[in-house]
Amino acid sequence: MAAAEPKPPAGAAAARDLARGCWSAFWDYETPKVIVVKNRRLGIVYRTVQLLILLYFVWYVFIVQKSYQDSETGPESSVITKVKGITLSELKVWDVEEYVKPPEGGSVFSIITRIEVTPFQTLGTCAESMRVKNASCHSDEDCVAGQLDMLGNGLRTGRCVPYYHGLSKTCEVSGWCPVEDGASVSQFLGKMAPNFTILIKNSIHYPKFQFSKGNIKNRKDGYLRHCTFHEVSDLYCPIFKLGYIVEQAGENFTELAHTGGVIGVIINWDCDLDLSASTCNPKYSFRRLDPKHIPASSGYNFRFAKYYRINGSTTRTLIKAYGIRIDVIVHGQAGKFSLIPTIINLATALTSIGVGSFLCDWILLTFMNKNKVYSHKKFDKMVDAPASEPSQQDCTLTDARGLAQL
Question: Where, by residue number, does the polypeptide cross the bilayer (predicted)?
Answer without folding.
Answer: 44-62, 346-368
